[in-house]
Amino acid sequence: MFIINLTYKTELKTVDHFIDDHIEFLNEQYQLGSFLASGRKVPRTGGIILSNVTPQLELEKILEKDPFHKNGLANYELIEFVPSKTCDELKFLME
Questions:
Q1: Full residue range of the structural domain in which residue 13 is found
Q2: pLDDT digits (tens, 9 = 90+) for 52-63
């Protein structure tokens, strides 16, 4: 499992120009089962995506399709982790 930490490299006005395309990308990945959660950072300097895609190379190929990536708007940090404890509602993450 991966935490994807996006950090914007440009002003929010430029990011907002591509936000609808980014949301469409996210929706497609949710439908494919690749993403589990996502959202903005506070303050709004980027976002976080939780993904169950492995191996990392496969996830990197998916992220290359993100309009934020295609247009050079964000840096992507991938942090791999293995859940070892969750609340009852998130037990599926340990499977």
A1: 9-34+59-74
A2: 999 999 999 999
In a domain, 21, yes or no: yes
First to last CA, the chain: 11
- DSSP-derived pairing of the beta strands 46-51 and 74-80: unpaired
pTM, two decimal places: 0.93
* CB-neighbour burial class of residue 21 (10 A; exposed 0-12, middle 13-18, buried 19+): middle
Residue 52: phi and psi, rounded to 5, are -105, 10
Whether the pLDDT of residue 95 is over 80: the answer is: no
Domain count of the chain?
A: 1
